[in-house]
Every structure is written in C-alpha cells, then in structure tokens.
Amino acid sequence: MQLDKLVNYHKALADPTRVRMLILLAEGELTGQELAEKLFLSPATITHHAGKLRGVSLIRERRDKNAIYFSLDRYFVKQYEGALQAMLAKPAEAEPAKEAEPMDEKNEKNEKLKQSVLRNFFTADGKLKHIPAQLKKKRIVLEHLAERLQEGRSYTEKELNAFIQAYHPDFATIRREFIMHAYLYREREVYERNPREMWERWETLA
Predict the structure, then answer these.
(1) What are the residues whose beta carbons fall under 8 Å from the beta carbon of 122, sequence distance 6 or more?
(2) How far apart are CA 39 and CA 51, in angstroms?
(3) Three-class secondary structure of residue 42 per DSSP
(4) Do 164 and 174 touch, CB atoms closer than 8 A?
(5) In Å, how far from its chain's centre is CA 39?
(6) How far apart are CA 160 and CA 146, in angstroms?
(7) Is 17 helix (H, G, I), strand (E, B) or coil?
(8) Which of 13, 76, 140, 146 is the least crowded, having the fewest Cβ atoms under 10 Å away?
(9) At what angle do helices 32-39 and 43-55 cross, to 10 degrees?
(10) Per-residue pLDDT averaged across 127-151, rounded?
(11) What are phi and psi of 154, to 5 degrees?
(12) What is the CA radius of gyration of the chain?
C-alpha cells in the first residue's frame, strides 16, 4: 500500500498541465482564477487538476471570501523525493549497516537521549504525560507512538483517535502532528502509516 502512494504521486505529475501549475505555484500563492488565466484554461479545469495535486498533498488550498488560493506544499514534495531515492538506492550506495557494527559515539548519544525522553514523558504504564514543546523531543515521542501503529493497515479517523487516546487525551493535536511530520498519510479521512523512510528524523536535529 505504501508503494501505491508513491505511484499516485507520480501519476499526479504525469500531466503537463499539473506540472505547469506546480511551476507557477513555486513562485508563490495564486488563486484558481489567476492560474486559469495564466494557463489559458477554464476555472473548472483548474479545479479538476488541483484536486489531483491536493490528493497527493502537493498543494494546499485556502479560501478567502469567494476566492480559492493555491500554494505549493514544499514539505511533501521533499518527502516524496526522499522516499523514492531511499527505495531506489543500490545496496552499494546505501550507508553501511550500523546495526552490524558497535555503536559509535554519536549513535550511543542518540540512544541515551531517546531513552531519557521516553522515561521523562511517559508514565510507567505507557501513558504520555504531555506533548514536548522542543521539536527534537516531540519527534522522539511521535516516532515512539507511530511505531505502535500497524504498518499497511488503514485506520478510520475514529480508530486513530481511539489509538491516540489510549496514550493521551489530546488526540486532535497528536493526529495533526503525525501528518505534519510525515509519520502518517491521510486520504479521504483514512489514515495509514508512512514508510519509515518518509518519517522526519529527530536524529538530524541539533
């Protein structure tokens, strides 16, 4: 199922009009009417193509009175590209498997930090005390929770809320953070865990 998401991403790009829309939006936010005028298309055609791009999270939209504004979602563009590169990387090009070697000083430091955050933010029975404010610690917590979601399983919003509430009552915030940091993928109110290659890595933060 995760491969399907990458396939849908590339299907969305397999149309010259959609690529032109993304090029224009890379320069800044535009209304549907402005896109239609620049591309010499009807507003209805722009709405159709925007739906395809929005379906794979390549663009965002917002409403202001009677106008709909579109903007490029650079975050998800980067995430899709990174996931594809990771999947296509040849074994010889991949990083040496660190699991087969003794942990170096950096890995050991990261592991100690992770365990410290989990001890400080989770109770003995696994409940999340509160959501960390610091980004690095927040990602450690989100990763810990995401690992407990079944890979390949689709969750309705109600099921995902129930899963989160088993750890913390603020399911809306954590659900939103899951999406923002690419741990989960959402399509038509159905959620699924992203491949680990798409997760935002807390180890890369200072």
Answers:
(1) 128, 129, 141, 144
(2) 17
(3) coil
(4) yes
(5) 30
(6) 11
(7) helix
(8) 13
(9) 110
(10) 93
(11) -95, 135
(12) 20
- Backbone phi, then psi, for 40, in 5-degree steps? 55, 45
The Cα–Cα gap between 26 and 120 comes to: 42
- Average pLDDT value for residue range 120-129: 94
Q: Which helix (H) or strand (E) holds 191?
A: strand 190-193
- Within 10 angstroms of residue 48's Cβ, the number of other Cβ atoms is 13
* DSSP states of 49-95: HHHHHHHTTSEEEEEETTEEEEEE-HHHHHHHHHHHHHHH--TTTSP
Phi, psi of 64 (to 5 degrees): -135, 105
Query: How much of the chain, in percent, has pLDDT values that exceed 70?
Result: 88
Residues in the chain: 206
Predicted local distance difference test score (pLDDT) of residue 100: 44
Which backbone phi and psi does 112 adopt, to 5 degrees? -65, -40
Residues near 88 by Cβ (< 8 Å), separated by ≥ 6?
none
Q: How far is CA 197 from the centre of its chain?
A: 11
Q: Give the number of C-alpha atoms closer than 13 A to the C-alpha of residue 151, restricted to the C-beta side.
A: 7
Q: What's the pLDDT score for residue 159?
A: 96
Residue 117 exposed, middle or buried by CB count within 10 Å (0-12, 13-18, 19+): buried
